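Regression test case RT-17, inverse folding.

Input:
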């Protein structure tokens, strides 16, 4: 079953529990290699990218066991940094193994860290920083090989804010000799979670969440129990689904402190929200108001991963919206699919589109091309007349445990087919 059938027209109503964060869990799973010990990751999301990361870790000697409330990882038996072909292809998150394995075993070899449909996904910042720390890195075609007899702390100026490069350098620095200063660091909450996990393991890190992270290398790290924080992008996806359908929803465990910008956009769309420790209450408007202009940016600006969801809500808003995608080169692949549903979208240039909102989309057959765009197509089906078939939805399970279950919990008529 690689499609989702959506019967639109029903406002979402009820409560949904937000799963653990994909983009926090994946670097933390890689980081667990540095402890060479047993770790327990509570609230680890059951998504295909986590399953694939488990396969990679097991291929180099780790043990992984799912328990009721989380994932048990034992990296005491890790014996190699050579990841067999076919394990890391097509999964950007395997890049975190570069810093983790250099720190844990001093060598890495893996393939397939290439780009994907949303953009080039370069790794030059990663390579520059790790090389400055003493790693020798070669990168032919699609295979990367790296060794480091001893990683040494140093000052690194990142040319631009990169979540993955920041995380990789922290992973390489925690067991390095001396102190590492990462300037121009990204500030995403997932980086804060990674640094919090590593600090619990005994690492010495300051400045997480700012543009300057300082790491003092230590001799060893120990395994710990750590709770993966809720996924702000999953929460934001359901936030815009509620707005697009005029619903009334409680997002249980939604990390509202990490969603200020999406909540500000929600308010401009006419939604009413309030939050408490347990999550976010959101009341969507009868019909969303166009917000005029929405620009994605690095945290805490509007997250690129919610751009497609906001685009869908803008398609049924009153008025015109211009969306500018500033992070990835190719994050409008959803646009031709939305036009099949009747959306009125004009390409301005390769980073901007102009949307004239219409009253209602019309159900049709569409194709998911990647994770967040695919999820947004399901949202489009929710606010379309009639039924919409979203094909190639395997992408969605990379980041959403079960989007059909979650949306059905909110009264949506959706089913995997
Ligand atoms: C992380 O990707 C997330 N993935 C992405 O989420 C997220 O969209 C992105 O950060 C931005 O927030 C994970 O955490 C697993 P970047 P990452 O390095 O680290 C350029 C999702 O849907 N760049 O911050 O790959 C790069 O091309 C995914 O959950 C370089 O030029 O993103 C991009 O234009 C999608 N050279 C920009 O920086 C480099 O060496 C930001 O990329 C590295 C990055």
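Golden output:
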């Amino acid at each position: 079953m690689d499609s989702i059938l959506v019967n639109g027209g029903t406002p979402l109503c009820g409560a949904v529990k937000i799963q653990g964060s994909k983009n926090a869990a994946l670097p933390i799973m890689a980081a667990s290699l540095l402890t060479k010990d047993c770790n327990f990751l509570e609230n680890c999301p059951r998504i295909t990218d986590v399953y694939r990361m488990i396969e990679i870790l097991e291929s180099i000697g780790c043990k992984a066991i799912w328990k009721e409330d989380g994932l048990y990882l034992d990296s005491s038996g890790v014996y190699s940094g050579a990841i067999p072909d076919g394990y890391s292809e097509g999964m950007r998150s395997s890049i975190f193994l570069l810093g983790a394995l250099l720190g844990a075993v001093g060598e890495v070899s893996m393939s397939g860290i290439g780009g994907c449909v949303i953009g080039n996904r370069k790794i030059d910042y990663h390579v520059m920083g790790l090389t400055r720390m003493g790693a020798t890195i070669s990168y032919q075609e699609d295979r990367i090989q790296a060794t480091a007899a001893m990683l040494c702390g140093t000052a690194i100026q990142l040319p631009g804010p990169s979540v993955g490069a920041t995380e990789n350098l922290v992973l390489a620095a925690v067991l390095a000799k001396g102190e590492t200063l990462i300037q121009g660091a990204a500030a995403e909450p997932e980086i804060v979670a990674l640094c919090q996990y590593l600090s619990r393991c005994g690492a010495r890190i300051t400045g997480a969440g700012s543009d300057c992270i300082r790491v003092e290398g230590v001799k060893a790290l120990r395994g710990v129990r750590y709770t993966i924080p809720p996924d702000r992008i999953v929460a934001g996806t359901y936030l815009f689904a509620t707005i697009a359908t005029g619903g009334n929803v409680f997002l249980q465990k939604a990390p509202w402190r990490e969603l200020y910008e999406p909540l500000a956009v929600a308010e401009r769309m006419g939604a009413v929200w309030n939050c408490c420790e347990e999550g976010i209450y959101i009341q969507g408007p009868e019909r969303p108001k166009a917000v005029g202009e929405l620009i994605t940016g690095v945290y805490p600006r509007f997250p690129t991963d919610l751009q497609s969801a906001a685009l869908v809500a803008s398609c049924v808003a009153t008025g015109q919206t211009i969306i500018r995608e500033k992070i990835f080169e190719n994050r409008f692949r959803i646009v031709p699919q939305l036009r099949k549903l009747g959306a009125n979208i004009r390409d301005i240039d390769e980073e901007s589109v102009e949307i004239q909102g219409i009253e209602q989309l019309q159900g049709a057959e569409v194709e998911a091309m990647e994770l967040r765009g695919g999820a947004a197509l399901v949202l489009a089906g929710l606010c379309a007349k009639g039924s919409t078939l979203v094909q190639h939805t395997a992408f969605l399970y990379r980041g959403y445990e079960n989007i059909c279950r979650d949306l059905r919990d909110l009264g949506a008529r959706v089913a995997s087919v």
